[in-house]
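> @MW can you paste both from yesterday?
MW: sure, first one:
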Amino acid sequence: MIDVPQTYRWLLAITLPRTIECALALLGVQEVVGKGSNRTIIGWRDELNAAGVPITGYADDDIPWCGLFAAIVCHRAGKPVVKAPLWARNWASFGSKADKASLGDVLVFVRNGGGHVGFYVGEDATCYHVLGGNQSNRVSITRIEKARCIAARRPPYTNQPASVLPFRLAATGTVSSNEA
């Protein structure tokens, strides 16, 4: 069973978009701080390269990997992967524009030194609750200020799940200030 934080256990009781199913399966994967890299994260690069999704210039999990996480999730969910997916802001061209961020959507954020990408699981008045990689050096769900969001993008669906809706959540937990 996936170790989902109590606040988000409701996700296990509904039919999820494939992006969220695939992302939740990776919850808790964390990088090796300092010398060395997590073989799982490096394996994502290799899996994508083998599938014809070029991942170049990624040799160590000290390199920001939120885009790599988004790419492996989309690949495993049967969704397209953007060109040069390691660059978080490239995800602003993914799928189609979402008028209102909803479960499973890709969210792109600005941050000092670049960008960040993750998946929408909910929101409170001021923050999105984002399931992403390289959040405190691991795959986690964290709160990121809505004001930092520059794009909400809907994955392409043949049959969009009924759960692709906005979810209002309690404003609990720390607000992330830099996901690198």
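MW: second:
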Amino acid sequence: MEWLVSLIGVGLVMAALRDLFHTLWHPTRHGGLSRLVMTALWRLARHFRARRRVVGLVGPLAMVTVVGMWAGIIILGWAIVYWPHMPGAFTFAPGSKAAQQPELLDSLYLSLVTVATLGLGDIVPAEGWLRLVSPLEALVGFALLTATVSWVLEIYPALTRRRVLAIRLALLRGSDPTTRQLDCAVGALLLDSLATEVVRVRVDFTQYAEAYYFHDGEDHSSLAAVIGYAVALAERGQAARRPDARLAGHLLAGALEDLATILDQRFLHTGGTPTQVFAAYAADHGRSLTQS
């Protein structure tokens, strides 16, 4: 029975590590615990659309919540591993009152101290296998800290790329180039560069799905609000006479269609056309889609 309880704890730890792995290093369209938490917070925030400050905190708050969830599951899991073997398999420091506490509380305390790599030494594993497991928990705690820092450092460049594309599209919408103006070498380069940026954003939504739950602020920096204008530019490029401009227009249209597919598969689930997906994307972010 003791080993069965310990195996339940191991299962909790493995579930947290699996979710961490798939969130940070091998994201899938099916998501996991972290995606469920982020989606729930995002949907809850939709009821507070009038309060922009609340919506703007969803992304950072979701990341903090997910990291706290990972840490909590790992600490609880290892505590369950220790619990059936407490206190007989452990040595307590002389004068320590830890042995007088409930066994589950001692297990939680030891797990928390170990995962934080504090090494206070008032409770020390005595059995051989526990002396191996305890340092392993410290390594997991260090890995969790490192992964959290890496996650933060990776997500914000992805957000920057998305907002740069949005601002660029907003500026182009202000000048509103016609098909004739795009029907030149410069127009072809412009459309080609936009296609490249759209592809980068598409990759960011694949690799960093949590970026979807970050609010972009004003309309001119919100991709959800201006992505429709990129569709209009692609159509104008496809109507150009120059082969290079037409090719660039087709490239941009293909990149936008691919982006719409990723948004629909991972977040929106409309099953509609790219225009319908982008309209749903804009609505989900509290915006209205503009194409001209």
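> thanks! The mean pLDDT is 88.
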